Each structure stands twice: as structure tokens, then as C-alpha cells.
Amino acid sequence: AGCSGGGEGGQAAAGDDAITVGFSQVGAESEWRTANTRSVREALAAPEFNLRFSDAQQKQENQIKALRSFIAQGVDVIAFSPVVETGWDNVLREAKTAGIPVVLTDRAVNVADDSLYATLIGSDFVEEGRRAARWVIEDSQGKQGPIRIVELQGTVGSAPANDRMRGFKEVIDGDSRFQIVRSQSGDFTRARGKEVMEAFLKAEGDNIDVLFAHNDDMAIGAIQAIEEAGRKPGTDIRIVSIDGVRGAFEAMKAGKLNATVECNPLLGPQLADLIREVHAGREVPKRVMVEEGVFTQDQAEAELPNRKY
Ligand code: GYE
Question: Is-contact 292 266, C-beta < 8 A?
Fold first, then answer.
């Protein structure tokens, strides 16, 4: 009894019949991610769970190592949020051979055999990309083309970057006024978002009308770059991003960000339910969606006190 591996000091110890969960997190790249980690830790707490938490620092090789170590330890269930989509077949086959069910959290994988994981709980990233594009189109009513868009993409090869790009393009391509003139990854961080936006501004000068950032943190970094270049974010360049974190609402309140598409990181309770089910050997849906919306500047002040992340 009483082994609380990975638990925080001062917490209750895991019970004798606790479910041991190995969880491999992407990293701590964004406000979204830190809220997600908090939610997962709270939901997978002792005494019901014995959580072994590992941070991959945005590197797939670290995640593969963590998963192999969870398999070697014989955890009851593995849950993880895959940094990128491809390259998981081998390690997931090892988990399956060891009889350890795998619950994908937040991000999808691309594997030939989808019996290699039990279920995926996460958002519809393609739809988020479409929502961002629909907002851009609505915001551009009555404007003449060409309307020049720059795109700050998420981590190369990650499900949210691939899917948000696809959903956005699908909708924006239907309106010939729009041109995506630059796309580059800012790795979902503020620092990279700022750097890449600086490069965009250098290359395009005053010819950027819209910024689409795959997450709020990169938009917030880019806002700084835009201000330092002597332009007005939210006015000279219209900006839409994804997540709906507190920092985005603050930037909207300040008039610097125009809209954010919600992506809810508080998956912990739903994840815990799925883990209970697969651990008990019960059938679960292969895909569980998280519900979310879109928020604009005029709603920011009223919504801010309600935000939980
Ligand atoms: O949008 C971004 C984070 O996978 C949905 O990862 C998640 C994304 C989120 O770094 O902020």
C-alpha cells in the first residue's frame, strides 16, 4: 500500500486497489498545456489512482522512452498525448502485447491498426480550423481582395497543426479574395510565435491583413512582434487564434486579438472515466469529442470571469 509514484507531496497515498496510470504529456509549451496537465493530475489523483506522470518536452523520442518504461513497470493503463501523429506502431504494439490498454488524450495518432489503442478523447481540430476561417470570412465582409493571410502553425507533424491547417484551408479556399502568403511553424510557443512573426513582417512589410495562429500563445507572441514593428495588432492586422486561454481573453479585452476559437483542455474528468472503463474491460467509444465554441472581442469582458483556464 501507499506507493504514490508521481503524486505531489502532501497528497493522499494511492489505495491498495488503485489503478496505476502511466501518463506521458507533450510538454509545457502553452497555457493550454499547463491547464491540461492540472486537469489530468487532479482527475487522476490518489487514492483511486496511482499516477506516474512524465513530461516529454515536445520530443517524440522522450515519449517513446516513457511509454516503454510504463510497459516495463507493468502499469494498468497508459494514457498519452502524442507529440506527433506518425511513428507509434511499434511501441503501441508492445503495449498491446503486454496487455496494457492505451487511451489517447487530446491528440490523435496515425497507425495502420487502430486496435492498437482503446479510445481517443479530444477536440475536433479540423472543425476548429474551419471555425477560424469562418470568422475571417465574416470579419472581411465588404472588403475587397486580395486579403493576405499569414499562418503560424503548431508543432510540425502534430495532429492539431495538421488538422487546423486543413480545416482552415478548406473554408478559406472557397473565397477567392484570400491568399495564404506565408505559413510556418511556431511550435505552439510564445517565443517562437514572436520570432516567426518578425520574419513574416520583414518579408511582407505592410502587406499582411490577417494572422491565423494555431494557438493563442503564438498569437500573443506575434502581437508583441507586430507592436514592435510599429503596427497595431487587432486593427492593422486582424488576428484569430485557437484555444481560448485567459491570455487570449485579456488580449481581446485590450483590443489586440480579435477572436479565439475554443479548445477545451479540461479533459481530466472524462479521461478518468475512460480509464475506469477500459481498466474494467468494458467497451468504450473509439472517439470521444469535447464540445467548444468561438469568442470575439465584444464578449471578452463578460466572459473573462467565467474562464476556468
Ligand atoms: O491547442 C496548443 C497546445 O494539442 C490541442 O497543443 C493541443 C494543442 C493546443 O500546445 O496550445
Answer: no
CA distance 296 to 239: 11
Cell numbers 501507499: residue? 2
CA–centroid distance for 98 within its chain: 29
User: For the whole model, what pTM was predicted?
Assistant: 0.94
Q: How far is the CA of 63 from the centre of ligand 1 (A)?
A: 16
**Which segments within 86-229 are labelled E, that is strand?**
102-105, 119-122, 147-153, 178-185, 210-213
Between CA 233 and CA 220 the distance in angstroms is 10
Could you tell me the distance, in angstroms and rounded to a whole number, from the CA of residue 28 to the centre of ligand 1? 10
The pLDDT tens digits of the residues spanning 157-172 come to 999 999 999 999 999 9
Q: Closest ligand 1 atom, CA of 245?
A: 11
Give the position of cell 472517439. Answer: 287
Distance 303 CA to ligand 1 centre (A): 21
ipTM: 0.99
